[in-house]
Amino acid sequence: MKWLKTLLLILIFLMNLKNALAYEKEFVITDIVSDHTVQIQRLDKLISLVPGDILAIYSHESKDVLGYARVQSLTDNSDLFIASIESHHRSGLIRAENFLKKYNLTEVSNDVPARFDLIVREDKQVAAKYKPLVYAGVVNGMTASNLIKNEYLAGPFILGYGVTSNFQLNTSLMSAFFNVANVSFKNKLVTTDDLDFSFENGFQYFPKTHRGSYQFNAYLDTTSNSNFKSYAKLKIFTQKPEDQTFTNNEEYRKDLNVELQFATSFIQANWNRVIFGPKIDVNKRRVGGIVSYFIIDKNFNSMLGVSSNDFSEFRLGKQGYLINLDFWWRF
Q: Domain span at residue 219?
């Protein structure tokens, strides 16, 4: 009987191993059609597919995730279909025999590794956790990425709308609360696998002084590697009174003012992010900065951090260091 028990254990192990391998290798690439198109064979016939579904591409040698493929066309009564390459790890080579696994990125309960090269850019249905950061809080401001067409961004300090994937409207609700009418137009000019470049034109009107102001922002986001991303912002604005924001620690008196901001983002294993870096006020010759922690869920984003307009001011408050808390929804 002992040998029979051993045999049963071996059979159970082999069955579990077969099921595990079948689950892991749900699909396999059979042909590289072009630089951005592959032919895929379905190995698990129980998995349903529709055009637009996302499949993670795994190396059949290292088991690393190489990128995403999006289902393009399906043929009835055939296990072969065509998919487009949506993202691609720069150090990985997608080729025949790579296997694939279907993911539902509209939900956050996935085991996709947290990497900036696995961010999904042009899909409104994908959870915010897997999208590029568009807004980084009231003190940090915008990044070079834009909202997708018909996508909204809403929080206690900001309201944004994606007119197209390259054109976004924003208004500061905090300034509006203090009767400062404002609107900004953000345009994304360049998008590649490694960088995004955008600029933003903003306009404010201060009813108490019957004055208006203009603000120009240029944004450049670059991906250093899979886990680090860099943000750079150039801010140019005209003379304006203090407008109840935390970004100005006193009234600006010159006709033209310049600020530079640089930040580095680190993505954690749970897809949350840490952003830190300096801010340089050229006119006032002051150096401050920010450090923030972001928790990103399906639609809800929250941020907790510390900012300073001047590192040399060792005190709490608008003239020194501030605790920052912000939250918003992206949908």
A: 128-330
